[in-house]
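Suppose you are handed a protein chain with no further information: no name, no annotation, nothing but its sequence. What can you learn? This example shows the usual starting point.
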Amino acid sequence: MEKFKQILKKIFFLPPLAVVLIALPSFAFCIYVLSMKIEGAVSYIAYILSAYALVITVTGFTRIVRAVRKGVNGFALVRKVLAHPLGGRYLTDKIFRAEISLYTGFAVNILYAGLKMFSGIVYGSVWFISLSVYYILLAAMRLLLLTHTLKKRGVKDLAAEYRRYRLCGALLVFMTLALSGIILFIIRREGGYDYPGVLIYVMAMYAFYSVISAAVNIVKFRKQASPVLSAAKAVNLTAALVSMLALETAMLNQFGSGDDMVFRQTMLAVSGGVFCAFILGMAVYMIVHGGRRAKASDNVDVIGGSDGEEGKL
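A reasonable first move is to predict its three-dimensional structure. Written in structure tokens, the prediction is:
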């Protein structure tokens, strides 16, 4: 068994340079096959190579990031940024970066939701309004987490954090409903995404980066014992999965033919169902786990109190 693990490690856990040298040509080859609409054995080879490239990219992502950071830190400009209090904190403090990402994500979600809602009202488009609801829910979750970080800055209150964590899980349930409506519109071809020209390849790289980064950060921030930041990363993963769905829709529109409607609908229904089930499962876990941990933290606070100071830290 140990030998089998070693073999798997050698195949799927490669050094950073090997990952880059294998993954980049594999992705480029798959993109070429899709763009040229090549079929047969060549297409199967391209799909297998791209699948392997995706696996080793996921398993080697953190090592690649460490290697890049180690090399980049030697640049004069980066040294100057690190010397600045704010720049240095942003580059070295992952908790601070997570808080900044909440601010930027909230601002982008609000602007995008407003734009889609305005377009939906002006053009009478239920598709745009559905997208607006989705981004409003994303913004609401980020605002919920932001208000906690502002109120409790410098104060560790696990019970309060777990309650926010649980509430984010509840909002993710509504997010699943909004996403189900979006998927239904896409399947019925009453909405969708379209990235013309080379933009679709740029969006493909962004979508894969978003999913890999979000998945890695969820694992990483579990070690920080901060339910609020863990919830923030769960929100990021939800947004990343929707980016993957948008990419799939765009690729089917651009590379599919007009007579493969059944295949298109089946693929979107299956992938959309998997995404919704995953997000719903994550939401249920956050609700149950957050509720239990909040109750446990409250009990610890009460037991730790004495002489009329029960319930205080």
